[in-house]
Design a protein that fits this description.
Elements lengths: L2 H12 L1 E3 L3 E3 L10 H15 L6 E5 L2 H12 L5 E7 L8 E8 L4 E8 L8 E9 L3 H12 L3 E11 L4 H6 L5 E11 L2 E4 L3
Parallel strand pairs: 3-4, 3-7, 7-8, 8-9
Antiparallel strand pairs: 1-2, 4-6, 5-6, 9-10
This protein binds guanosine-5'-monophosphate.
């Protein structure tokens, strides 16, 4: 069975829907973690982005870290940087900072990366667990660009394509590659886009 089908079946088996638009995957992706599955996720991102000369992977704490760390091994162990979340915007001269609206928490928060870790000429792959409205990914793109780096793509494990994140991130001139794409939740069940 191809990996995409394995991922979709795992989402159907172990994921559950909260309210009308939140999918919980804490049994295998972002609380308890299935490392074997993450390895396959890492391989899938490598297969898609391998020709971009990626020299750094950027993600956001906490859920992106495991995904990024495993994926980095397929990119010849490039460094993984994770942006940190703060409750309020608070200028820090040693960091690049941007404001992100949280879809799950319904509020803005500040995201920072130390200037030590983004440089002009960096070729950055951004990874995250979910794509909803695209704000987290857009914030990470902003941080890379503040540091003079180039974003060579955004890799997402689960995209909810009924939300507008892909359109928003694509409008920033960045290629988005999502592994599983959910077009709807019907009676609490995720319905996937045709692959
Ligand atoms: P966006 O910034 O694209 O609106 O939302 C993406 C971020 O919100 C991700 O970093 C993820 O942590 C969180 N998120 C968005 N939708 C979901 C969801 O359905 N389930 C979970 N577990 N997290 C989500």
């Amino acid at each position: 069975m191809c990996f995409l089908k394995i991922l979709e079946e795992r989402i159907l088996k172990d994921g559950y829907v909260l309210g009308k638009d939140i999918l919980k995957v804490d049994r295998f992706l972002n609380h308890q973690v299935d490392v074997g599955l993450l390895n396959e996720i890492g391989k899938a991102f490598y297969a898609y982005f391998k020709d971009h000369g990626i020299n750094k992977i950027l993600t956001i704490e906490a859920s992106g870290i495991a995904i990024a760390a495993i994926t980095a091994q397929y990119f010849d162990n490039v460094p993984v940087v994770f942006a940190k979340k703060f409750d309020s915007v608070n200028a820090d001269p040693d960091s690049y900072e941007t404001s992100v609206y949280s879809f799950t928490k319904n509020r803005d928060y500040s995201v920072r990366v130390s200037k030590k870790f983004i440089h002009p000429g960096d070729r950055v792959l951004i990874l995250d667990d979910f794509l909803a409205q695209g704000r987290a990914a857009a914030g990470l793109i902003d941080l890379v660009r503040q540091g003079g780096g180039e974003v060579h793509g955004v890799g997402i494990v689960i995209e909810k394509s009924f939300q507008d994140g892909k359109t928003y991130v694509s409008s920033l001139g960045v290629d988005v590659h999502s592994l599983a794409r959910i077009r709807a939740f019907i009676d609490g069940t995720p319905i996937f886009e045709e692959s």
